[in-house]
Structures are given as structure tokens and as C-alpha cells.
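Give me the fold.
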Amino acid sequence: MKKIGIVVAMKVEKVAIEEKMSNKITETVYNLPFILGKINNIECILVQSGVGKVNAARTTQILIDRYKPEAIINVGVGGSINSELNIGDVVISKKIVQHDFDITTFDHPKGYVPEVGDYIEGDKNLLKTFYNIINEMEENDYKTKIGVIASGDIFCTDIKHKEKIQNKFNADIVDMECSAIAQIAFLDNIPFIGIRSVSDVPNGDNTSTYKDNVELAAEISSKILEKFCKQY
């Protein structure tokens, strides 16, 4: 049976996915509750990392060491920096980048990470499944795009900062964990994909928008994961 690891940052994201799991048991490792179960007969290990890249990286390595998943998926919400994406729309990671990693003083481009590079590519085989999912979606469904996720240890609210990230990295959505999870998966040679649904649009006042829409966005991203588990 195929086995995937699922990493989320927040409780609202965990709850949305846990509701779709059957045969659940919980194991605690280094004070992290890992929920083991199935989604559509795919064996899943779900864990909430906490917010930020360090928490995400730590949790991902523990997940790999303890449970040895065949693939890892990061599921959650993020801020749209693509003007064509609205609340609830989804980005699947073709590429992932750390927008706040900066060693340009050593003649590397912004976002470049030693031993990793600037962008991390989403796994091509996993992407094929998501392309199939997108092709089968109805016209009235939320928009789902294969694109670029940019991560940094900041909740982006500033319009100029949003535009800078979008222009520099051609990114579609920002979050605070995906690139760290992708980096650990890359270094451990494990297939990875990120799923992010839009909860807000950085505009100087998007904190309230986020609070109003985070549950909706978490539910939508969990539904995309559920569709993936039907076809994987």
C-alpha cells in the first residue's frame, strides 16, 4: 500500500484533513502528535508542524526518520500574489523557493540555497496526478494552477513586498513553510508537492481577510488532497 506523509502548519489545516481520514490512531514523537490513517485507501501520516520554516523542517525530518513515507505533501493556506488568483483558488507547486534567503553578497541570486539551488522542482510523477485532477474539475470549481510557491518567515501584508516577491520569483502564492519542507524532502530524495489555497491577498489590511477565510481555504486544500488520494 502506498504511504504519504502530510505536513500542515496549523490546527485548522489539520482538522480539515483529519476529518477525511479513517482508521485513525495517534502516536507522539518528540512531543509531536502523528495521526496515522487512510484517505481513500492511501496510508497517510498527518502531522502539524507549527508555523515557520524551522518548525516545518524539524517536523519533516522526524516524519521521514520515523515513518519513511514514499512521498510528502504540504497542505495548507497562503497569500495570493498573482492578480488572477482569488480567495479559495489553489496553487500546486511546480517550483518552490525561499524568498527571504539572501546570500547575494556572495554572488548568488536571491533565494539561492547552497547544495540545493534557487528553486526546488515539484516531483514530476506527482504533478501528473494533479494535472489529471485539474483536467477533471468542473468549470464552476475554484481555480487550480500549477505554479510557484514562495516561502519566508513573515506573514506578508505589505503591497510592495508582495510585488517584489512576485516580480523576482514569478511566484503565485506566499506561505511560511513549504520551501523548508521541500528542502528536507529534496535532501532526503523523497518526492514532494505543495498544495496551497488562497486565504488572503497581501494589501496592507489582509490580516482580517485571512481570519475570515482561513477555514474555507483549509477545507479547499484538503479536498484537493482527497482528490489526489483517489488517483495516486
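The beta strands are 3-8, 22-29, 32-39, 42-48, 71-80, 90-98, 119-121, 144-151, 173-175, 192-200.
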